[in-house]
From TrEMBL:
It comes from the Bacteria. This is GNAT family N-acetyltransferase. Keywords: Acyltransferase, Transferase. Pfam families: Acetyltransf_1. One of its GO terms (molecular function) is acyltransferase activity, transferring groups other than amino-acyl groups. Residues 124-262 form the N-acetyltransferase domain. It comes from Rhizobium oryziradicis.
Length: 262
């Protein structure tokens, strides 16, 4: 697992709240329910944990923890999904204590990184313009990430439901299929990079850097001031790419699942 950025002491909770809110808009769940400040996010057609989890958004909201977890579990079961709890710096420590006491398992730590776009360096790389062809992008993304083609309708619906303006960036080789892809979501003065993927045959050749840089430059020209992204903490290659672009760690999150769930 990647080491924590030693320059990060305690995350800024106002920044965490803002980045969480913008990430919800950038990757929207089909169904969102609130139990106090807990957000229950469910998407029947797509398995992404970010759109199928419970997130606590207020550290002071600690009432009836076990009762609310059980209530959320029933809602997940009605969707045919196993419940997961997403722990961010906004989660009350008391909730995490209950998860530990009840033998839930912690897994999949991710890092949220940010970049002041005023500090985006100048690089001599090929420019790329975004596409609005969702079907083409979805086909490419599923191929690049080696995912089930049956997920196409759900992924297409998820991308269609993104409310802020977004650009779908692709690199393709005629007759040889997609090489790389990324989504750039521009939300007021923030922009997010999502779903970056590079084909195995083109990794380590700078294609991911080039495409990400083009997307960030596109967002900056549209008025974005800060970029953000989420990356798994053990993805060393992606972390190296993002740090080369200038991204730094803002905070981390992880998931919890009940005992007995693989």
């Amino acid at each position: 697992m990647a080491e924590a950025d030693q320059s990060i002491a305690q995350p800024s909770l106002p920044q965490v709240r803002r980045l969480e809110a913008v990430s919800f808009r950038a990757w929207p769940a089909a169904s969102v329910h609130y139990d106090g400040s807990w957000q229950v996010r469910l998407t029947g057609g797509h398995p992404s944990k970010r759109v199928n989890c419970v997130v606590a958004l207020d550290r002071s909201d600690t009432r009836d923890i076990r009762l609310r977890l059980e209530k959320a579990q029933r809602k997940f079961l009605s969707y045919g999904r196993e419940m997961v709890f997403r722990e961010t710096p906004l989660a009350p420590p008391q909730v995490v204590d209950v998860l530990r006491e009840d033998a839930w398992h912690r897994f999949d730590e991710s890092i949220v990184m940010v970049l002041d776009l005023a500090n985006l360096g100048e690089h001599d790389v090929m420019d790329h313009l975004p596409s609005q062809d969702i079907g083409r992008f979805v086909d490419a993304s599923l191929t690049l990430q080696n995912e089930d083609p049956a997920l196409k309708p759900a992924l297409a619906e998820l991308i269609t439901n993104i409310k802020p303006p977004s650009g779908l960036f692709l690199v393709e080789v005629p007759g040889n299929g997609p090489v790389a892809g990324v989504i750039c979501v521009h939300d007021n003065d923030l922009t997010g990079l999502l779903q970056l993927a590079v084909s195995e045959s083109h990794r380590g050749q700078g294609v991911g850097f080039e495409l990400s840089y083009a997307a960030l430059r596109w967002a900056r020209l549209r008025g974005a001031k800060m970029a953000w992204l989420q990356v798994q903490a053990d993805n060393g290659a992606a972390l190296a790419l993002y740090r080369k672009l200038g991204f730094q760690e803002a905070y981390r999150y992880c998931y919890w699942r009940p005992e007995g769930v693989p």
